[in-house]
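Self-study notes.
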Amino acid sequence: MPIIELYNGYVPVQIISLVMGESMHVNDIPNITEMSVHEKIQLAEELWDSIALNELDIPVPQSHVNELNKRFSNYENNHEQLLSYDELKSQLVKRK
């Protein structure tokens, strides 16, 4: 992996690329091809966990906001037509 010297330590070029806004690709991860499936899954889990720590930084697409608003409005205007879990379960059992 190419390394550049920074101050008294070293920083991988991939990290510099990410900081500068360049996208990283799976093949940029050192030794990814040598990792087992289990190790790759662990890496993916760690990446998702790190994203979840900053969930407020993740933009929500306007289409999702619109859909949630539409569904909530529908709920507010028609909540008397909704079934409880027990009512729904009872109806489903009757269909069998």
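Second protein, same conventions, sequence then structure:
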Amino acid sequence: MSEFDFPLPPPTFEFLVFSLKAQAEVSLGIPVFGVEAGDVNLLAARHAIDMLAMVSEKTKGNLTMEEQRILENSLTELRFRYIQANEQQAKGGNKVEAAASGDASAEGKSPE
């Protein structure tokens, strides 16, 4: 058994959603599962978010309440973070990681 052999998680709907969510978060420059924050790639992030939105549309009425909740919450969170990243990039900054972690000082705002 090599160092790269490890048990894969079962192929569940939740795992699909979390995989696409993690892909979007990495593209937004947010550290995920030990992967350090990298450069923001809004195009790739938007693509992953659009993929989740397509999954939501195509599975409408066929999900358990828990699956629907996970999908809707993931989409809401990613869309919010995408807007934050887009605004930060427009300002010329790359403070997405701090903004995503809830650090109000990253945007020059005081916590309320």
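Instructor comment on the second fold: Residues 40 and 98 are 13 Å apart (CA to CA).
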